[in-house]
From TrEMBL:
Gene3D superfamilies: Cytochrome P450. Pfam families: p450 (PF00067). The lineage of its organism: Eukaryota, Metazoa, Ecdysozoa, Arthropoda, Crustacea. It comes from the Eukaryota. Its cofactor is heme. PROSITE patterns: CYTOCHROME_P450. This is Cytochrome P450. Transmembrane segments: none annotated. Coiled coil: none annotated. It comes from Halocaridina rubra. Belongs to the cytochrome P450 family. PANTHER family: CYTOCHROME P450 (PTHR24279:SF120).
Length: 68
């Protein structure tokens, strides 16, 4: 058996994100106007020993893209 949880579905969960149905980019700032969020809810690269080995490459690519 394999249990798979789709991370995108957690983004719509009101118990984790207040006003989940609204576009509020400020929710990701360090000082969140809507209060704190659970740090392990959003893990696009997984976590721990089975974490995606391309994480740093993807992050650096995003930094370069934003810097340009």
């Amino acid at each position: 058996w394999t249990i798979l949880c789709l991370g995108g579905l957690l983004g719509w969960e009101e118990s984790y994100f207040r006003h989940a149905d609204k576009f509020i980019p400020e929710r990701w700032l360090r000082h969140r106007p809507l209060g704190p969020i659970e740090p392990f809810i959003v893990q696009p690269f997984s976590h721990g020993t089975r974490m995606c080995i391309g994480r740093r490459i993807a992050e650096q690519s995003a930094y370069i893209l934003i810097a340009r």
